[in-house]
Every structure is written in C-alpha cells, then in structure tokens.
Amino acid sequence: MLFVMRSENATTAPFVRATWISSSGTTRSIEPDDIILQQVETWTSPETHATYPSRWKLTLVSLGIHVTIDPVLANQEMVTKDSSGIVYYEGAIDITGTDSGKPIRGVGYVEMTGYADSLGGHM
Q1: Are the C-beta atoms of 52 and 39 separated by less than 8 Å?
Q2: CA distances, 76 to each of 6, 48, 66, 96 (Å)
Q3: SS3 of residue 33 by DSSP
Q4: DSSP output for 65-103
Q5: Are 50 and 44 a contacting pair, CB within 8 Å?
Q6: Are 101 and 64 in contact (CB under 8 A)?
C-alpha cells in the first residue's frame, strides 16, 4: 500500500508512506527515503478538463522492487453531479515489473483527489 499526500500549494515535499505486505501476510513499513515514485504520463478529462497523473514508475529501493503502474482505463474520473459535487479519480490499475530481478505482475486501485475543483470550478 502506498499513499502520497501533496501540499495544497505544492511548495513543500509530499508526505509519502508505504507498507509492503508479503504473500504470507507479514508487513513491513517502507521508509520514505526508500520510495521513488515518478509520474510518467498524464490524462486530461474531456468533461472537467482536469489533468491527472496516469502512469507511474515506482521503486522500493530496500526491497529491490521496480514497477510500472498503469490505469486499466484512462477515464476513471468520478463526477458526482447528483450527490456530493466532488470530482475525483478512482479505479483499477495494472502493475508490472521486477522483484529482485524476477518478473512480477499485480493489480491494484488508485484514488486521486485535488486535481479538479468541485463542480463549478472546471465545468
């Protein structure tokens, strides 16, 4: 599990934390200095015109893990006109890469907020 909390004005470094959960269920906290997360691509919503990260490269240095994270579908933006009015991005991701040089694959879930204004700002 990985999360990144960006500052509102992007003047400070993001708060980054990760926990590695092995196939046997044991957990290990990953130190922020061991996490290298690079945004590779973006996707712009045709509806709200918000631009979201859409591909990442992630390295967990101490574990020897190098992966690429891709959304299963580009458009996974949630535009909640009929409820909260919040616009955010959430959906499935595919993960491919290596663990100590051995090929690995996985699936996951991403949620991103703060890239679009609430309805009215970008609409």
Answers
A1: no
A2: 20, 12, 25, 20
A3: helix
A4: EEEEEEESSS--EEE-TTTT--EEEEEEEEEEEEETTEE
A5: yes
A6: yes
Tokens standing for 77? Answer: 């933006």
Give the pair of three-digit tokens for residue 26.
């044991």
Q: What is the pLDDT of residues 9-66, one digit of tens each?
A: 666 667 889 999 988 999 999 999 999 999 999 999 998 999 999 999 999 999 999 9
What's the half-sphere exposure (Cβ side, CA atoms, 13 Å) at 28? 10
69 forms beta bridges with 56, 95
* Sequence-separated contacts (24+) of 29-36 with Cβ below 8 Å: 30/60, 30/62, 30/63, 31/62, 33/61, 34/60, 34/61, 34/62, 34/63, 35/2, 35/59, 35/60, 35/61, 36/61
